[in-house]
Predict the 3D structure of the following.
Amino acid sequence: MKVIIDLIEDIRESISNAEEYTVTAGLLKADPDDVNRLVYAGEAPLNRWHLDDVRRELIFEMDGSDARVTVGALIPPLLIADMDVMMYVLKMDVNAQYRNMEIVGFGKNEEMKQYLLFIKI
């Protein structure tokens, strides 16, 4: 389970808070030959994010729009959030079928200037 403070620390360490990076979903699937192994299955841009104070989650969303979440728009409001907000769980809504997906890891693509949030589907 990843929380906001994990995200902030990883972005700082891996890409030095580079504001131009877009935040992208990285899709992982179980390997049919080895269920303990995950295989990269593609990526998709994230369009929006919001804090859900009731569920105590930071939720990223894909809505098919041209909007893109960037590190420059995401990190500053999180840095000034209260300490209890830093412990909100990271989740993602991909579509009607895949909602409330837990983010299992982070990555980056320096060439494409993407910061990846991995989910297992």
